Automatic annotation (TrEMBL):
The lineage of its organism: Bacteria, Pseudomonadati, Bacteroidota, Cytophagia, Cytophagales. InterPro entries: AAA+_ATPase, P-loop_NTPase, Signal_recog_particl_SRP54_hlx, SR_rcpt_FtsY, SRP/SRP_N, SRP54_GTPase_dom, SRP54_N_sf. PANTHER family: SIGNAL RECOGNITION PARTICLE RECEPTOR SUBUNIT ALPHA. PROSITE patterns: SRP54. One of its GO terms (cellular component) is cytoplasm. This is Signal recognition particle receptor FtsY. Gene3D superfamilies: P-loop containing nucleotide triphosphate hydrolases, Signal recognition particle SRP54, nucleotide-binding domain. Keywords: Cell membrane, Cytoplasm, GTP-binding, Hydrolase, Membrane, Nucleotide-binding, Receptor. The keyword GTP-binding applies.
């Protein structure tokens, strides 16, 4: 929790110092305070839709109770944000990187556009699973970028896990097939497959991801067990747009939101969680392996309000 606080410092500075400044010298939550709150939420990248929802709910409470003191605003806002954040119900919520019982290998397909921290997230995940005693196989399925394949191979060496790679410009589905095959044959616990993140055309993306899924299902009807979308938390509106594109193209089951250490706009986590109803499973708060953290709603909300 300490490093989460540290990682999210910019979010806190942005969000909560602004809120405290907005209510200085005011005892009562009135229209002016709500306007300020709305502005703060928007400028923290919570997104218009979710901001409006939060403001409405607080307005309703003010109307119902006739009065709300600014000193209560903190805890009320905390409650409202907690309602909007989806609970992380995944097996490894405790941070111990367990895989679901009886699922072997647990297959994770990772999607997202270039530059969001996809490769780094896969490397960090591999490291944490490996550290938890899990046998991991990686698949370098982002075959459109030489750098992605090379970078994943480096992570594999660094962590000490095998990386299935067919080089550049090869069929990502074939990489996925071989990765799951090797994972199955060698008794791996987890297979993590990278994919190309080009949003070239929607139909292409959709077909490509569907094909990757199909070949994985040759080994297990439930594979991939997780489709993890990686988003860069510092890109605000772009992260929303990418979430929209990818959820249209495939069934995204979990989110990793990276680079929250580099932004005062952690509100993206709240807005995306609310609008897409997909659990945020990991957050990235820095470049070190342990900076990929298992998302906890409680810890996140508390860190915003400290
Ligand atoms: P990809 O193109 O999506 O595979 O992106 P990379 O994994 O190559 O990451 C792009 C850059 O973002 C790299 O320099 C990473 O070290 C950096 N990065 C990834 N996640 C985080 C994070 O949570 N915090 C910070 N500060 N940097 C990150």
């Amino acid at each position: 929790a300490e490093s989460l606080d540290k990682g999210l410092e910019k979010t806190k500075d942005g969000f909560f110092s602004k809120l405290s400044r907005a209510i200085v010298g005011k005892s009562k939550v009135d229209e002016e305070v709500l306007d300020e709150l709305e502005e703060i939420l928007i400028s923290s990248d919570v997104g218009v839709e979710t901001t409006v929802k939060i403001i409405r709910r607080i307005e309703d409470r003010v109307a119902r109770d006739k009065f709300m003191s600014t000193s209560e605003l903190d805890s009320i806002l905390r409650e409202e944000i907690a309602v909007l954040l989806s609970e992380n119900k995944s097996a490894d919520v405790s941070g111990d990187f367990e895989t679901p019982l009886g699922v072997k290998p647990y297959v994770i397909m990772v999607v997202g556009v270039n530059g969001v921290g996809k490769t780094t997230t896969i490397g960090k995940l591999a490291a944490q699973y490996h550290k938890a005693g899990k046998k991991v196989v990686l698949g370098a399925g982002d075959t459109f970028r030489a750098a992605a394949v090379d970078q994943l191979k480096l992570w594999g060496e660094r962590v000490g896990v095998p990386v299935i790679d067919h080089g550049m410009n090869t069929d990502p589905a074939s990489v996925a097939y071989d990765a799951v095959k090797q994972g199955t044959e060698t008794g791996a616990d987890v297979v993590i497959v990278d994919t190309a993140g080009r949003l070239h055309t929607k139909v292409n993306l959709m077909n490509e991801l569907a094909k990757i899924k199909r070949v994985m299902q040759k080994f297990s009807a439930e594979a991939p067990h997780e489709v993890l979308l990686v988003l860069d938390g510092s890109t605000g509106q772009n992260a929303f747009i990418q979430a929209q594109e990818f959820t249209k193209a495939t069934e995204v089951t979990a989110l990793a939101i990276t680079k929250l250490d580099g932004t005062a706009k952690g509100g993206v986590v709240i807005g995306i969680s609310d609008q897409f109803k997909i659990p945020v499973k990991y957050i990235g708060v820095g470049e070190r392996i342990e900076d990929l953290q298992v998302f906890s709603k409680q810890t996140f909300v508390e860190s915003l309000f400290k």
